[in-house]
Amino acid sequence: MRKILLLLFVVYGLSLGSCWAEEESPTATLKPVLNDLTSVLADDSLKGPAHLVERRKKIMSLIKRGFDFREMSRRILGKTWRQIDDQERDHFVEIMTKLLENVYIGKLEGYTGQAVEFVEETVRGERAQVTTLIEDNNTKLPVHYIMNKTDSGWMVYDINIEGISLVRNYQEQFKSILRKDGYKGLVQALEDKNRSFLQEAQ
Q1: What pTM was computed for the model?
Q2: Which has the closest alpha carbon to 27: 38, 17, 37?
Q3: How many CA atoms within 13 Å lie on the side-chain side of 167?
Q4: How far apart are CA 70 and CA 89, in angstroms?
Q5: How far apart are CA 67 and CA 73, in angstroms?
Q6: 110 Cα distance to chain centroid
Q7: What tens digit of pLDDT does each residue of 70-108 get?
Q8: Are 41 and 108 in contact (CB under 8 A)?
Q9: Which of 37, 26, 6 minimizes the C-alpha distance to 161?
Q10: So where are the chain's domains?
């Protein structure tokens, strides 16, 4: 359970700093997004149920600056992505992004200042991996951010912690639904799940 909660937390990489100064490097691109996110999470004026909507809106706005939810959704859906039209793709990105918000943001809101250290950056063409260490209970856990160079700059499309890939994890979860109920069944399942989160929040 501890590792699962850590994965939920580090999806957005709450960073305290970076050792790369190059303006266009993946780490330098990600750093201001993560620092701004940390500031929002630590802002006492945004804490509590009364500020839920405002807080979530600010968090998602920041996250979308550094995370490519369309590329993430495309990879999660796999070959099915090529079988649907543009309108269906847009809708899938929308509901997948909402699912990730519903599943993970609550965990981020429990941020208590855990330290994250950037330790390595590897760039191969249009792909990059930024490795960090997150400290928890005197243990440093490596977390890898997988990034893609886009027209908007370097963007995260996957996170890997102890061999567990966020994208691959959802791919495996969705395979059985796609086999049994097809794409429409998967969309229905995601929409139902998002509605259940909404009802819980009311």
Answers
A1: 0.79
A2: 17
A3: 21
A4: 9
A5: 11
A6: 16
A7: 999 999 999 999 999 999 999 999 999 999 888 887 777
A8: yes
A9: 6
A10: 2-201
For residue 134, the surrounding DSSP H or E stretch is: strand 127-136
pLDDT band at residue 4 under the 50/70/90 scheme: very low
Q: For residue range 164-173, list pLDDT tens digits in order.
A: 899 999 999 9
**Cα–Cα distance for residue pair 43/45, rounded to 1 Å:** 5
Q: What is the DSSP letter of 113?
A: -
pLDDT at 8: 43
d(CA 153, CA 83): 28
CB atoms within 10 A of CB 44: 7
> Across the strands, what pairs with 160?
144, 165
Q: Which amino acid is at 143?
A: V
Q: Which fold has domain 2-201?
A: Nuclear Transport Factor 2; Chain: A, (3.10.450)
Rounded Cα–Cα distance for residues 158 and 29 (Å): 16
Give the chain's length: 202
- On the CB side of 132, CA atoms within 13 Å amount to 31
Integer Cα distance of 92 and 170 in angstroms: 13
* Integer CA distances (angstroms), 31 to 7, 9, 50, 156, in order: 19, 16, 29, 12
